[in-house]
TrEMBL record:
Pfam families xref list: ACP_syn_III (PF08545), ACP_syn_III_C (PF08541)
GO MF entry, a single one: 3-oxoacyl-[acyl-carrier-protein] synthase activity
Beta-ketoacyl-[acyl-carrier-protein] synthase III N-terminal domain location: 96-158
Domain Beta-ketoacyl-[acyl-carrier-protein] synthase III C-terminal intervals: 230-321
Key words of the record: Acyltransferase, Transferase
One example of a Gene Ontology biological process annotation: fatty acid biosynthetic process
Protein name (Swiss-Prot/TrEMBL): 3-oxoacyl-ACP synthase
CDD domains for this protein: init_cond_enzymes
Signal peptide: none
Length: 326
């Protein structure tokens, strides 16, 4: 989907202190760990930074879209309204985008439909803290080490440091079974925690018993949505200066992102993500802030933000930098 008048007016993140990663061949150096800081506070602190950078006043905001990949707080409670109260603090709608690690990228497309007047703005936030007894951040998946952190971005019609040229998504719903394995759908067993490797092992046993698991490759979704959206944006992978991707470990990152896109790690944000870990939906926007504030992207440069989520689905956005960081 191509956009004519959609901008990123401000971006911010809250990055906890890091702890060393295990020397297990993953290529990771360290992972962010937030201790007992709630996920929604990580999101709200990032939101405050993004708002201050945006130049928008609280009265300009027409909505807040919040996302998270893991539990945000008590069942039946509204995390988006907590973030709203601790950022904009205005009587506007606050919605939760439940799409795992694509929450912010998908939220950006939703935000476009909420911006009507020239001064309208939407705050997108995300935050996760995986430091609970039900999650082993080091062993939940061979594809990544789970990191805590928050990120936020302000979508605007008025202008900003980057113009959104196009955004899109593509899914392979037949693969949704891979992320539930043999777990029951009802009643949901919340005591099992978040462990993708257990589900992989279940499918491995099923295959050995003659049951073929759903087939597909995330890299194919990544390349399909990226090249289609780049074409809609009037850009190309060669035109793109940098790619902001999720914080996967080195092997999966290469297999799912770098090789399908035909780029090397230097064009991505591996230098950063190998020190932060996989912070859910925050990763692409943490990467964008890192590039922009360091002056590694300048006006006229195209940047591809891309991610994947259970479903399976891949989504991306192509932005053109319009301003230098102060």
């Amino acid at each position: 989907m191509r956009f004519e008048n959609l901008y990123l007016a401000g971006v911010g993140s809250h990055l906890p202190e890091t702890v060393p990663a295990p020397d297990d061949g993953s290529g990771m150096v360290s992972v962010m760990v937030a201790g007992d800081t709630p996920a929604v506070d990580l999101a709200a602190q990032a939101g405050d930074i993004a708002m201050k950078r945006s130049g928008h006043e609280p009265d300009d905001f027409v909505a807040l879209l919040h996302s998270g990949s893991y539990h945000q707080g008590p069942d039946g409670w509204s995390a988006p309204h907590y973030v709203l109260r601790n950022t904009i603090d205005r009587p506007i709608t606050a919605l939760e985008v439940r799409q795992g690690c694509l929450g912010m990228l998908s939220g950006l497309r939703l935000a476009a439909g909420l911006l009507h007047d020239e001064d309208d703005a939407v705050l997108l936030t995300t935050g996760d803290n995986y430091g609970t007894p039900l999650v082993d951040r080091w062993r939940a998946s061979r594809m990544f080490l789970l990191a805590d952190g928050g990120a936020a971005v302000v979508a605007s019609r008025r202008g900003g440091f980057a113009k959104v040229l196009a955004a899109g998504a593509v899914s392979h719903p037949e693969m949704e079974e891979l992320h539930r394995g043999g777990e029951t759908l009802f009643p949901p067993d919340l005591s099992r925690g978040l462990n993708f490797e257990e589900r992989v092992a279940w499918w491995r046993d099923q295959w050995a018993a003659g049951v073929t698991p759903p087939m597909g490759h995330l890299g194919e979704l990544v390349s399909e949505v990226a090249f289609r959206t780049l074409e809609e944006a009037g850009s190309s992978i060669d035109r793109v200066k940098r790619v902001c991707h999720v914080g996967f470990t080195e092997g999966p990152l290469t297999d799912i992102y770098l090789d399908p896109l035909g780029i090397d790690a230097a064009k991505g944000t591996w230098e950063l993500t190998r020190t932060t870990g996989h912070a859910g939906a925050a990763d692409p926007f943490i990467g964008l802030e890192w590039l922009w504030t360091r002056g590694e992207v300048e006006p006229g440069d195209h940047v591809l933000l891309i991610g994947t989520a259970p479903g399976m689905e891949s989504g991306c956005a192509v932005v053109e930098i319009t301003e230098r960081s102060a």
